[in-house]
Amino acid sequence: MNKFLSLSLLLVISTPLFANDVINTKTANSISQNTQDASSITNSARAWGLTKNEWTKYKVLMQGTNGRYYPTLTPPEVLGINATTLNELMHFAELHTKQEHDRIEKELRFNVAFHEAAKRLYANEPIIKPFDLTPYTPAFVK
Prior knowledge:
By secondary structure, this protein is mainly α. The protein is built from five helices and no strands.
């Protein structure tokens, strides 16, 4: 009985210590998660040329009907569509225009490289070979 009492007393005394460790661990994990979330928000905002506030506004907009109407639009497009002032509208229009310009420039540069590689690797073949159109021709045209 004495051993049981000693063990019970030890558990009662040490439980707040263990509980405190659990609380501190949860707090540390929460702080760590918040730091990661803030870092993720900053990285996402930066990737689109947005401020943290603009990114947060975009995320809120996408939780509503914008998420259903515009699931494939870029953040600047969504923010521009939902702009409430002329300055906001112009800011997001210019941001989107610059991003699209850069994207298209990269795609065209790659396209030129593709055609150069195709000429070098397959000099005697057309890039698109002729193919039989018969399966796609309606019966009444024959």
